[in-house]
Amino acid sequence: MSFPLAQHDHGACIRAALDAAEAECRRQGARLTLIRRRVLELVWSSHQPVGAYALLESLAREGWSAAPPTVYRALDFLLRHGLVHRIALLNAFVGCTHPGQPHAGAFLLCKVCGAAAELDDAPVVKAIAEAAAGLGFSVSRQTIEVEGVCPGCRDKDPAP
Amino acid sequence: MSFPLAQHDHGACIRAALDAAEAECRRQGARLTLIRRRVLELVWSSHQPVGAYALLESLAREGWSAAPPTVYRALDFLLRHGLVHRIALLNAFVGCTHPGQPHAGAFLLCKVCGAAAELDDAPVVKAIAEAAAGLGFSVSRQTIEVEGVCPGCRDKDPAP
DNA sequence: GTCCGGACTGTTATATTATAACATATCGAC
DNA sequence: GTCGATATGTTATAATATAACAGTCCGGAC
Ligand SMILES: [Zn+2]
Ligand SMILES: [Zn+2]
Ligand SMILES: [Zn+2]
Ligand SMILES: [Zn+2]
């Protein structure tokens, strides 16, 4: 649960994510088809949220016969099964770092490098739940997206 | 700081919002021109977030010569001066209930009636700030949007 | 007063994101 | 093997947002 370092074995991130996805789909009785798997892999190609049309271009370059619904359907599947999150602020998608474990999904988004880090959202969710309960509002879903500068970029580019 | 009741003097909401906007613009040395004022009034025509193209249609019906940039510029002005908020989940805009007072903007969005209520976000902002600080992330802006069912709709339609 | 520069608005075109609708294919249970 | 459900292919279009440039207004300098 930390910001991805500039240097790390990202291949391991991807492999771990795909393995976790396979396991999670098995557990849920869902079919991680070839294209869904490939879209997930593309979403994981970095730690930056990726737009649907960027995914579409990648698929096209690889020779898939791909139109927008191809990608949106795959993303919809991945969202429904908790394998990716949608970042509303960016209209983009990012891999979930802990599928299977129920959580709301809260993100730190670096304005400099574009990286997204999934936050441990328990305390935030609790604060929101309390505030909402005070107004008699029953919560079903939360969107928590925080823009700022990640530690790596802050060190590189000290405030002028 | 509560959910808008189904029955209330909404004309008073609108008047209060426009008065507050006049005052805030004077304070900031900004010009609340006719079209900006009218867009703000339209945003406030309900407590539900309104899309840019819905505003555009309203303006057109009233005889304004309006194209998308007309509305987006007005909205941009209102956002920059803290008079409206953008709801990323809905691609829509809602009036700010306390312009001039610095706050992040956190919203409860009722899935049934569509109403939005601005939450007192201090505890939530604090929880996020602490979580972010723990990762060395410096926060500049937060998006907090909570979907659920408001008290009014919950009472009307008890869970089946 | 008038000239200037910045801020505002009008207008056309286009980019970006997302979905509707319907045809075809594939899978797995029986 | 047949059938129904699920998944994919394909075309078209909806919904949201911005780029670019021309014209206009407005307040202050002179
Ligand atoms: Zn990685
Ligand atoms: Zn997650
Ligand atoms: Zn009201
Ligand atoms: Zn506000």
TrEMBL record, chains A, B:
Gene Ontology BP term (one): negative regulation of DNA-templated transcription
InterPro entries xrefs: FUR, Fur_C, WH-like_DNA-bd_sf, WH_DNA-bd_sf
Chief subcellular location: cytoplasm
Binding, Zn(2+): 110, 113, 150, 153
Recorded superkingdom: Bacteria
Cofactor annotation remark: Binds 1 zinc ion per subunit.
Gene Ontology CC, one term: cytosol
Cofactor: Zn(2+)
Alphabetized Pfam families for the sequence: FUR
Keyword Flavoprotein applies: no
Keywords: Cytoplasm, DNA-binding, Iron, Metal-binding, Repressor, Transcription, Transcription regulation, Zinc
Gene3D superfamilies according to UniProt: 3.30.1490.190, Winged helix-like DNA-binding domain superfamily/Winged helix DNA-binding domain
Subcellular location: Cytoplasm
GO MF annotation terms: DNA-binding transcription factor activity; transcription cis-regulatory region binding; zinc ion binding
Subunit composition and interactions: Homodimer.
Record family assignment: Belongs to the Fur family.
Protein name listed in UniProt: Ferric uptake regulation protein
Source organism of the structure: Paramagnetospirillum marisnigri
